[in-house]
């Protein structure tokens, strides 16, 4: 986890609002800044440039597949105030679980806007609303969450550009390694059940094919959906297809 900026905010929760020059950065200026940091395994410099290009004030890049695990390991790079991230962690998990696979796939083209709880302390001048962009880098799903000034309107065109460029920078870092080797922590039997439901088989049919009880099959399928953060068999199949598991 790249906590370069996150740890700094533990000491200073009042981050600086971007200057007018940063908010009006041109595409050519952005390219010059990104050229200087391209290929670096540390992505915070690139994220800062992209955040300034949008006119946002704070960024947080998170691994969605780690949201439900303990601690703040899902945070890869951030300059959000530390206490805000810690307070928001459970809400992020809840929001992600309620979002369908189709909605997650569309989020790069249709950014999500959510409202922070009333009891959290925000950086001075920040809107209580934040924006999320979700996208994939290989098998890893990432979410870029942005704070911005109250009353400021983010450009949809620039949001799409920033989502694509964030995926590019994340692909060079260490933040997306390792998950492929875990095969999303599915067992061989769970992968086998996932294959058969992708083939359109019912629990009774899979039980007959594998020679085990229907209840056991349902337990395997429930475990698959829990581990992949999906809510239905159709979502689990979509997840499996997108990640080359079947």
Characteristic key phrases:
single chain, 246 residues, alpha+beta, Beta-Lactamase, Arc Repressor Mutant, subunit A, 2 domains, five-stranded antiparallel β-sheet, 5 strands, disordered N terminus
What does this structure look like?
The protein is an alpha+beta fold and 246 residues long. It folds into two domains: 4-177, Beta-Lactamase (2-Layer Sandwich); 181-242, Winged helix-like DNA-binding domain superfamily/Winged helix DNA-binding domain (Arc Repressor Mutant, subunit A, Orthogonal Bundle), CATH 1.10.10.10. The chain has helices spanning 4-11, 20-23, 27-37, 44-54, 82-98, 101-106, 156-170, 179-182, 188-198, 203-210, 214-227, 233-242, and strands spanning 58-63, 75-78, 112-115, 126-137, 140-149. α10 (203-210) packs across α11 (214-227).
């Amino acid at each position: 986890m790249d906590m370069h900026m996150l740890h700094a905010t533990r000491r200073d929760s009042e981050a600086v609002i971007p200057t007018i020059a940063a908010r009006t950065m041109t595409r050519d200026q952005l390219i010059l800044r990104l050229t200087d940091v391209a290929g670096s395994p540390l992505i915070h410099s690139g994220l800062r440039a992209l955040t300034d290009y949008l006119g946002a004030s704070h960024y947080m890049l998170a691994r969605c597949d780690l949201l439900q695990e303990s601690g703040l390991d899902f945070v890869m790079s951030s300059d959000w105030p530390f206490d805000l991230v810690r307070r928001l962690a459970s809400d992020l998990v809840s929001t992600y679980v309620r979002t369908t696979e189709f909605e997650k796939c569309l989020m790069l083209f249709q950014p999500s806007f959510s409202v922070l709880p009333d009891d959290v302390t925000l950086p001075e001048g920040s809107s209580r609303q934040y924006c999320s962009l979700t996208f994939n880098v290989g098998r890893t799903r990432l979410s870029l969450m942005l704070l911005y000034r109250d009353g400021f309107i983010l450009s949809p065109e620039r949001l799409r550009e920033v989502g694509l460029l964030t995926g590019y920078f994340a692909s060079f870092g260490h933040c997306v390694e390792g998950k492929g080797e875990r095969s999303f922590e599915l067992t061989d039997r769970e992968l086998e059940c996932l294959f058969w439901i992708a083939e359109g088989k019912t629990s009774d049919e899979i039980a007959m094919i594998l020679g085990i009880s229907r209840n056991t099959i349902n337990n395997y399928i429930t475990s698959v959906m829990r581990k992949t953060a999906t809510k239905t068999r159709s979502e689990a199949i979509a997840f499996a297809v997108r990640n080359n598991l079947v």
